[in-house]
Design goal:
By secondary structure, the chain is α+β, with helices and mostly antiparallel strands. It has helices spanning 6-17, 21-40, 87-94, 98-105, and strands at residues 45-47, 51-58, 61-65, 68-75, 78-85.
Length: 112
């Protein structure tokens, strides 16, 4: 298990679709731009079988600097993007053996 980069996606999709890597890269860049613009306009995006990207409001909270435990900083309300996986994606990921993920991700995979 490893990180999949945009470059990896371009190569694999190019091989599967029979399009050039430049065409696939342009397609992916266009997709990312469209998704980013739509989210920045406050729209949610639903890809059936995969999941939903939602614009949510993260409520204000008090932040603390671990290097200065006594100091507090007020963090205001802000908009965030939340990914909510679809049922099919959840089911596919749920079938992964936990030990396999832990072995391949190490300490990174243990945080929730």
């Amino acid at each position: 298990m490893s990180n999949i980069t945009k470059r990896d996606l371009v190569v694999e999709l190019s091989n599967k679709a029979g399009l050039t890597q430049v065409e696939i890269e342009n397609l992916i860049e266009g997709f990312i731009e469209l998704v980013s613009k739509s989210l920045a306009d406050g729209n949610d995006i639903t890809l059936r079988g995969f999941g939903t990207l939602e614009v949510k409001v993260a409520k204000a909270k008090v932040g603390r600097n671990p290097n200065r435990p006594g100091s507090e900083v007020q963090i205001p309300d802000r908009c965030i993007v939340r990914f909510k996986p679809g049922r099919e994606l959840k089911d596919r990921v749920a079938k992964l053996p936990v030990a396999f993920v832990q072995e391949n991700k190490g300490a990174r995979g243990s945080s929730a």
